[in-house]
């Protein structure tokens, strides 16, 4: 024993001496930028990954998980990483929710890193454009929301800095807000800085239901299209190989649009960090091409799942993915292109999620939350509480299998009466409530010809609003507009406007949880 100790001592001394002869600084052990004090690691059954750097290839790195005693000890060797540096990575064995723990990491040269106040819980990534970047400081009742953050020390937040890269990065170029305990300062820093309101409120409502730690990682950038958050593999699936926006010298502060620039810099570096799921609020920047989004959105979700799960015991290859269906924007009842098409594409043209193309995907409908007077512009509604409440309900149901009524009413069947003067829509997913507004949002497309393409133009001339309807708890009966009698009836659609109704005043809601029926369009056959 004594001999071993002495040998060890000599070995350490020798290595230390060698290090000093070379560059002692290079030998220093360090962590990847996504790890630090106050972090939340993914709880059991997943294996959380921890990695970092050390220059001595072949050296042994020891990682210990501790509370009052050593609970786990794992050793690994330093190898040459794809980034051309010495790297090491360990997987901790699964740990149940709770904490705090500390993690001690050391090499054979006596370098030690201690990570303090580590919790185990669920880690969610929150991404997208400005409505995800929109911070708690900007929501309604911001003062009260910020003060309330002090009550949730088991929620931890992390904000990735806005950076771009033309090739996948292995580590974040910089971090805006390192892992921080939720507090008025860490959650209410300022408008457009940190912390993301939808991410925070979603995490807070989840925590209130689950009662264990939640780690929230915000990685978002206002104005950005989906192509910049997608890897080249995802884009290829949709035929996007040439980047028409290849502008590698994008100006400082310009909104990045080039293919994969933010995937490379703001998502790829996080792949080694075991996560539970992701939420997404994006699509406004793709409103010019909704049919492409029908491919690019499901393809990005699938690709993130593949890339995050390359190591099978870390993140699930079918991890839950939630999104916010685009909210209302301008106060103009005539706009029927752009956002309605994106909302439809956000569901891969099914109208609702989950569906066969988008499994384990959940959403919050937000089209009925206009905020035309928002000081941040009407495209940034301030009621993120309702958005997060709806997203949490669907997340609890889909991502946690907790029974909740999480979907607004969606048609299961439509049928004309014998005279073709009424169309009966059956909603059998729960009870329906119909408000008594004259503008109910249902429209028929009809024309004298059999050509259905008249329904797909931006013009509203072939679309006729339903002026009266009746309803029961599971059906809505539409009186066919008189302009459509003796015409070819092609299509029916609902809430197909950028801003379909006043605040919380669309036509169809569920009784339980007051969830709006999502917008839809369908072909009609008599
Ligand atoms: C994951 O960890 C390895 C070390 O095992 C490191 O070389 C690599 O850069 C990390 N990958 C990413 C995508 O960060
Ligand atoms: C955020 O913006 C709102 C609306 O302009 C303003 O009232 C508020 O003071 C701002 N908050 C901070 C922290 O700057
Ligand atoms: C959208 O994608 C789904 C599934 O991938 C497909 O069934 C549907 O036809 C597509 N819709 C359009 C309008 O391309
Ligand atoms: C803001 O607070 C008031 C008073 O508590 C409440 O009635 C209202 O619903 C809150 N608004 C939001 C969006 O949460």
From TrEMBL:
It comes from Patella caerulea. GO terms for molecular function: sialate O-acetylesterase activity. SUPFAM superfamilies: SGNH hydrolase. Keywords: Hydrolase, Signal. It holds the Pfam family SASA. Residues 122-328 form the Sialate O-acetylesterase domain. The lineage of its organism: Eukaryota, Metazoa, Spiralia, Lophotrochozoa, Mollusca. One of its GO terms (biological process) is carbohydrate metabolic process. Residues 1-19 form the signal peptide. InterPro entries: SASA, SGNH_hydro_sf, SIAE. This is Sialate O-acetylesterase domain-containing protein.
